[in-house]
Design brief:
Elements: E1 11-13, E2 18-20, H1 28-52
Antiparallel strand pairs: 1-2
Length: 53
């Protein structure tokens, strides 16, 4: 995951929210919802592809 503030790929989840380990920008709960939603969509597409095989 890329930090929108500094572009670093070292965003971590600290158990509560996403935080950039480079610039310490707190990406917050709203960002986490976007990531969770994107993950769910990707998972759904992968499951459909695997079901077709």
């Amino acid at each position: 995951m890329e930090c929108p503030a500094c572009g670093n790929n070292a965003v971590i989840y600290n158990g509560v929210e996403y935080v950039c380990s480079q610039c310490t920008t707190v990406l917050g709960v709203e960002f986490a919802k976007c990531v969770k939603s994107a993950y769910a969509e990707i998972k759904s597409v992968v499951e459909q592809i695997l079901a077709e095989k």
